[in-house]
Amino acid sequence: MLKDLSKKLLYVSGLLGLYHRVRNADSLTVVMFHRTLSPEDPRWRTCDPDYTLATRWLADSLAFFRRHYHVVPLEQVLASRRTGAPLPPRALLITFDDGWADNADYALPELRKAGLPALMFVVSDAVGTRQPFFQERLIAALRRGALKLADLAGAMQPHLAEPWQPRDESLGELREAIARLERMPAEHREAVLAPFMAALDDGHRHMVTVEELQRLAAGGMALGLHGKTHAPMKHAPDLDAELSGARAALARHLGQPAPNAESMSFPHGSFDDAIAQRARGAGYELIFTSVPVLNPVAGGVGWLLGRTGFETDAVVDARGRFRPDWLALYLFRKPAQRLA
Q: What pLDDT shows up at residue 79?
């Protein structure tokens, strides 16, 4: 209790804000959201709780950004990269990964109310599909009781180098299974999941449509790429397809004559130096990682940028209250590092 009270006092007193204004003046903070849903939405009950914010918490987060940062659009970050033009002090860029339909349903209205721009990284092959990626489908099936981890583990055994059994039916153990599935060749993973596919369909549409992409863009949401298939880049069977192919596919979705997405982020945060250089060679001017650092911007923005993940337990306490003091401690004290 005393520790929690000290956090509140540090924030309410203004000392933490002063520290941030001085220490982070010459940096670009990039925050990474995924989903946002109303708890009344039927998709809320089975979404991934670690990567989904209730919409009221998103609204609180945006108000926090307006108070402590200068929120900038992608175009301003690109201009700084191209010309060395300075960004405003304590610049912040808001990003959303994957291309969820709920970003159009809930995030866009909140962004417009707050008058803030953002950037969505889209998985090009997921545009217009109904069901999400296999990871999220497994999580939803477990949460609604349509999947037993013991059954999934049994189907995985012939394709594993070492035997693995879940200790329980928890979400944490499912994440262990997902990590192993991600490392499997695609044909092995498809064989494992095939008997469960009916159970993995929850009957809802989750992914953004072309019309929603157009509405997002018209509402101030810039569009970048998040791969073609959402495969981790280190395990992608066709890296060129995930990079250049994703840009071409998004252009076709939008009816554009040529790819023009200037930015991308790595799915699952999976990359190495060689992959980053391949992405740069594919024509992406700004490449975003999941390395949780602040980006120094003195002399202009670098081409490889870190992002801070926005997870529920960083901003919401056990009673469901938004905690700006927690968020301040989480964001303001990130290390500053130029990745490239």
A: 95
Sign of the alpha-carbon torsion through 192, 193, 198, 200? positive
CB contact set of 138 (below 8 Å; sequence gap of 6+):
147, 152, 174, 177, 178, 200
Nearest to 329 by CA among 9, 1, 2, 26: 9
pLDDT for position 8: 83
Question: How long is the chain?
Answer: 340
Contacts of 189 (CB under 8 A, 6+ apart): 134, 159, 181, 182
CA distance linking residue 108 with residue 91, whole number of Å: 20
CB 222 within 8 Å of CB 117: yes
Please report the pLDDT score of residue 3 as a whole number: 66
The whole-number pLDDT of residue 257 equals 75
Count how many Cα atoms sit within 13 Å of the Cα of residue 173 in the half-sphere of its side chain: 16
Q: What pLDDT, on a 0 to 100 scale, did the predictor assign at position 207?
A: 97
Residues of the chain with pLDDT under 70: 1-4, 258-259
User: In terms of Cα–Cα distance, which of 80, 123, 58, 94 is closest to 253?
Assistant: 123
